[in-house]
Amino acid sequence: MQSLDIHVHLLPRICSPVDFSGEVAVVIDILRATTTITTALANGANSVHVVQEVPEALALADQLEPGTFLLGGERHGEKIDRFDLDNSPLAYTPDVVSGKEIIFTTTNGTRAMAHCRMAKQIYLGSFNNISAIVNRLRTESPKEVHILCAGTDSLITHEDVLFAGALCEQLGAPADNVEPGNDTAKLAHDTWRAHSQTPEQFYRALCHSRGGANLVKLGFEADIQRAAEQDLYEIVPIYDPETGKITA
């Protein structure tokens, strides 16, 4: 692998789309959008169409043949009225999503994807597919990787920072040929090292994060447990900003 600089951006609102221009981006919304999208594609969904607003999702649904698609997503953690599915990865089972198009909108994750629209390649990362992401990046050997944390309601979330740090470590940073490209990458790596000494410590950190605490309140602790599982899937979701479509 050639020399690699890893840049971590803690929120879309504190970086510019220009920062991603011509580079490789990895978007992360651990609790739960990128975890759920990865699950849907791994379980046989044809693709996931991401949109920003609920009316966009309903308008797109009107253009598709009934029975060929599902509406999925959330607003502030809860299922949207008239939608088939929420944002729980546990809901996107093979018997539900196989062969279907998913129209998907969330409070934070889908907006982060659109923020990276100037990147030459946009991947979605989660703990469920972290090794697949690492292997893809090692194969492609880009000079820079930009990791964007979606956050929660425009605020930094611990769970996304933890994943950013884990990805830095698995890519080999810090090393002679793999370096944090900004101090935020160093901060993320330090955060991961501080909270991943045991699986129990890592899981507690997810539960006590902003996103995790919200899910616990809503009764979705099982989703946190699923999001914490590493390497369930070997796929790499790829987002096309021109079509809004994600494929594996």
What does this protein structure show overall?
There is one protein chain. The chain is of the alpha/beta class and 248 residues long. Helices cover 38% and strands 20% of the residues. It has helices at 33-42, 54-63, 94-97, 109-115, 130-140, 158-170, 183-195, 199-207, 210-218, 221-227; strands at 4-9, 24-28, 47-50, 69-75, 78-79, 101-105, 121-125, 144-149, 178-180, 238-240, 245-247. The chain has a 6-stranded mixed beta sheet, sandwiched between helices. Strands 7-2-8-1-9 form a 5-stranded parallel beta sheet, with helices on both faces. It is globular and about 55 Å long. The two termini are 24 Å apart.
Question: What is the element layout, followed by pairings?
Answer:
Elements: E1 4-9, E2 24-28, H1 33-42, E3 47-50, H2 54-63, E4 69-75, E5 78-79, H3 94-97, E6 101-105, H4 109-115, E7 121-125, H5 130-140, E8 144-149, H6 158-170, E9 178-180, H7 183-195, H8 199-207, H9 210-218, H10 221-227, E10 238-240, E11 245-247
Parallel strand pairs: 1-8, 1-9, 2-7, 2-8, 3-6, 4-6
Antiparallel strand pairs: 3-11, 4-5, 10-11
Helix pairs in contact: 6-7
